[in-house]
Amino acid sequence: MSSDYLTDANKAKLKLDKVSDSMCLAKWMQTSLHLTNGMTNSCYHPPLHKIDVDQIKTNPSKLHNTDEKKLQRDLMINGKRPDGCSYCWKLEDDKQMSDRHYRSGEPWAMDHYKNILGNPQADIVPTYVEVDFSNACNFKCSYCSPQFSTAWAKETEQHGAWPTSTPHNDPAHFQGERKVMPQNDNPYVEAFWKWWPELYPQLRHFRMTGGEPMMDKNTFKVFDYVIENPKKDLHLNVTSNFCPPTPALGDRYFNMVKTMCDGAMIEHFMQFVSLDAWGERAEYIRNGMDFGTVWSNVHRYLHDIKGYNSITFIITMNNLSVSSLKELLENILRLREQYSTTYQRVWFDTPILRFPIWQHIGLLDESFNHYFEEAIQFMKDHQHDSDMAGFRDFEIAKLTRTYRIMQQGLENKEQHLANFWRFFRTHDSRRETDLLGVFPEYKDWFKLCQQATKT
């Protein structure tokens, strides 16, 4: 974490404290919009809540300015803590800085400090927006669900729930508020495009997720709009599996990104690529992937697209990521050496998978310690904080913290081990895969999982 980032967070804390010790600008200036089922939150910590479908018919900004958010804003202004923000409260009660300080200290939030205080109950145009337009996706990632993948939905409709202790991804679960809206008849998407002309001029960060954005017509509608209306201060981000179902779809995507970046139509384009392991292990975790296609597209992106842009690998740390972690980092280093010549274009993040809990790294035993230790040592051996190719101190620190979390373990471990075995035994049957054929190093541990089903 850079010193500038820490300084901005500390400055933000001083300003926020003038209002209250629970004030957070992200509640006003940031929003995540799950248009597939009409849910929203501010940052990603609070639970999602429903958008009022009637309100957005006359005021599309109610996609963000919901009654629930306005209630939470009022609590913050008056020094009270919204329950949904418990992630930050726990850190602060432990005398640590929280995301409330870090997020509020960023320019997209802090630049609007005075305007917010002038009229805290007004309908706000956010500057940081994340959106998923649909759940169209060609992958069935092991930790995903029908809510975010049409491939998952089709499979679950055919085979039903997964036989874990509590039935997993039961089709009945995805009804009511969780039901995905039809892609061609979605009032939340309709409201978004009505709001877009007001929203776009204020945006500083706009990120599209999914589903798989390459399979969504709205992604290309956004690109068309940006090309016709360049915005020099916009950070445009897309999260993709980088494995489009057809070459033509990939060509269309890459050509439009190239047009925006080469023409300096935006300030920065960030391509997020979800990749949790290396080679066939990555293919197993993210069922439907062709690893060769993904890695070829990574090189295509970094080689062909000019202008100011970068790529970030989202390595969602789960218990099947660990054994090939060092190999993945070795190849990320090679990309940095090859493509980060004038500025850092290749980044990665290692968030910890929390759900489903049977894929949490805390289930692994000490026989897996050496994989983490070798990966961390490799990073230390190639640490260069002033060199674009090397690993940064904060990257090493984060992976070291992840290793500690693995070593801490989990409660109710036997139950989760049993569910791992139940889930992946069914995975191999439904998807014609072979866990131990891909992960032979997990043989003894997988036996422990099977034994746990008998306790």
- Summed up, the helix count is 20
Q: How many strand elements?
A: 11
Q: Provide mean pLDDT, rounded.
A: 95
Radius of gyration: 22 Å
Basic shape: globular
Please give the alpha-carbon distance between the first and last residues: 44 Å
Stretches where pLDDT is under 50 for at least 5 consecutive residues are none
Strand order of the largest sheet: 3-2-1-4-6-7-8-10-11
What helical percentage do the residues reach?
A: 40-55%
What characterizes the major β-sheet? Answer: 9 strands, mixed
Summarize the topology.
Blueprint: H1 3-19, H2 26-29, E1 30-34, E2 39-41, E3 49-50, H3 55-58, H4 67-77, H5 86-93, H6 99-104, H7 107-110, H8 113-118, E4 128-132, E5 140-141, H9 150-159, H10 187-199, E6 205-209, H11 217-228, E7 231-240, H12 247-262, E8 266-274, H13 280-285, E9 286-287, H14 291-304, E10 309-314, H15 325-339, E11 346-349, H16 369-381, H17 393-408, H18 413-431, H19 435-438, H20 443-452
Parallel strand pairs: 1-4, 4-6, 6-7, 7-8, 8-10, 10-11
Antiparallel strand pairs: 1-2, 2-3, 5-9
